[in-house]
Write a structure and sequence with these properties.
Blueprint: E1 14-22, H1 26-36, H2 41-49, H3 56-72, E2 81-99, E3 105-121
Antiparallel strand pairs: 1-3, 2-3
Helix pairs in contact: 2-3
Length: about 130
């Protein structure tokens, strides 16, 4: 006999997309995530399209994935979606060493991040 199916963590009007091990520091990724938090999906996509940050294209792909999940898996209306949550987590940190003068070495840390985007369907105020 198998284990009972786990209940859904999100509400029925929500969908999410998670992108793991992105090669950018969490601090830099959070600047882009803060740019789209709480906005309508169409506005958030436009902001990411014209953002000058390197990682904005990756965040845009993740947002598009969350929109596709909402539309195909949960039958939500794309025009009524809002970015409810966009949060960043730490991942691994690669350690590298750089040669310095007098036979010394400095450590260089190359951090990775996780990104989670949750979109929510909101009813239009009549």
């Amino acid at each position: 006999m198998s284990k009972a199916k786990a209940p859904r963590r999100l509400k029925d009007n929500e969908a999410r997309a998670v992108l793991r091990t992105i090669r950018v520091s969490p601090q830099k990724l959070n600047l882009v995530a803060a740019l789209i938090r709480g906005k309508k999906v169409s506005s958030a996509l436009a902001d990411l399209e014209f953002s000058r940050k390197r990682i904005a294209g990756t965040v845009k792909k993740t947002l598009e994935s969350a929109i596709a999940n909402a539309e195909n898996n949960h039958n939500l209306d794309v025009d009524a979606l809002v970015v409810a949550e966009a949060y960043v987590g730490k991942s691994i940190v690669m350690k590298r060493f750089n040669a310095r003068g007098r036979g010394r070495a400095n450590r260089i840390e190359k951090p990775y991040s996780h990104l989670t985007i949750v979109v929510r369907e909101v009813e239009e105020a009549a």
